[in-house]
Write a structure and sequence with these properties.
By secondary structure, this protein is an alpha/beta fold. The protein has helices at 11-27, 54-59, 74-86, and strands spanning 2-7, 32-37, 45-46, 49-52, 64-69, 90-91, 94-95, 100-103, 106-107, 112-113, 118-121, 124-125, 130-131, 136-137, 142-143, 148-149, 154-155, 159-161, 166-167, 172-173, 182-184, 189-190, 195-196, 205-207, 212-213. The longest helix is centred in the first third of the chain and has 17 residues, at 11-27.
Length: 220
């Protein structure tokens, strides 16, 4: 038996779990078990799925241990992934039955493509990418590792998004060109509903239409 775990039993994890169940039922020929992994809650079952601590997950007798991570922070996903792989688990991809990937795309291990998402053509996406519902990646984009798309993100063609960037709900990233892509720097945050018309510096937070850096003292 293969044991599959979704790390994180919060809201996003509960959304991802039925997608994972459906996907595994389609691709797995051998028996499998699917559980939540969460060290921070007391519940032992959520939405019909067992909730195990990390230690308990690895105590279950299984032929192989596989995992994905339903946590929005890319940096947290990276730490969790390193810990899980350090204990011998292997990442697996999750893809909704109505998610679409069209032509000549590369998508790294540990990705989550939620319902109604799309990757069109000739894009290269790193590991542990999360595309929440109704998000898309258009042609010729390059996306790094541990990047997060909240619901409804529109990433148009010839965009580069570096590691750990977070793109908020409903954000739109303008199309670049092959010679001058729009670049979202490493660790940058694009706010909810922002319209990005030019490159964003690493670590910056941008908001508004057109998107501009969030000034000190604003945003609470």
């Amino acid at each position: 038996m293969k044991l599959y775990g979704i790390v994180g039993a919060g809201g996003f994890g509960r959304e991802v779990m039925p997608v994972a169940k459906e996907y595994l039922a389609m691709i797995c020929n051998d028996p499998f078990r699917l559980v939540f992994i969460d060290d921070g809650i007391e519940e032992t079952k959520i939405n019909g799925f067992d909730v195990l601590t990390t230690d308990r997950f690895f105590e279950v007798q299984a032929d192989e241990y596989l995992f994905n991570i339903a946590i929005g922070s890319g940096r947290t996903r990276e730490k969790v992934a390193e810990a899980m792989m350090g204990r011998g688990a292997r990442p697996f991809k999750i893809r909704s039955s109505n998610a679409m990937t069209l032509a000549e795309n590369e998508i790294g291990d540990g990705s989550v493509l939620c319902p109604f998402t799309m990757v069109t053509s000739n894009s290269k996406i790193g590991k542990f990418f999360q595309a929440n519902i109704y998000s898309y990646v258009a042609h010729d984009c390059v996306i790094g590792d541990f990047v997060t798309f909240a619901p409804g993100v529109k990433c148009n063609g010839n965009v580069v998004i570096e590691d750990h960037a977070y793109i908020g709900t409903g954000a739109i990233i303008k199309q670049g060109t092959p010679s001058k892509p729009v670049v979202i720097g490493a660790g940058a945050i694009v706010g909810m509903g922002a319209v990005v018309t030019k490159s964003v510096a690493p670590g910056a937070t941008v908001v508004g239409n057109p998107a501009k850096p969030l000034r000190a003292g604003l945003g609470g």
